[in-house]
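REVIEWER CHECKLIST
Item 1: Sequence provided? yes
Item 2: Single chain? yes
Item 3: Sequence as submitted:
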Amino acid sequence: MKPFVRRMESFIFFSRWLQAPLYLGLIVAQGVYVYKFLRELIHLVADAPAMTETQIMLIVLGLIDVVMIANLLIMVVIGGYETFVSKIDILEQHEDRPEWLSHVDAGVLKTKLSLALISISSIHLLKTFISAGDMQNMDERTILWQVVIHCTFLVSAVVMALTDKIMASKAQAAH
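Item 4: Structure as written out by the authors:
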């Protein structure tokens, strides 16, 4: 029975590699965001003289949004791969190793992702507030739901952070 259990456990442990193609897919998605960013930047530079300040601000907020989503993708790809699949050996001595990666675990990654989602949600909410004056057909219910969703992200992040803090203090007490 022991050889069977050992093989089963090896198979279960090996299954983590099924996540690797998912991370590669996220890298492809990031390439799409780079394309979108460059297209919007070219549009901004080419049409800036004819744009109002509000239009420029909305495009710049869109560019910031794309950058923040790209940052989120990098955190998920590198942090997730390192945490759940395998160590990235080349990063051990690399001069450009992200500082946050040295102390990342599932809890830290979850908190960083929550903060990134809150930041992205904030940008979307700011864009809505700025463009609401220009758009007479902006439904107040849509704005209200965006605020509710943003607040839900905030509350969720606080609850996750408190949960991680409680678990960490219990782990310290056990040692």
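Item 5: Key structural point noted by reviewer: The mean pLDDT is 85.
Item 6: Recommendation: ____
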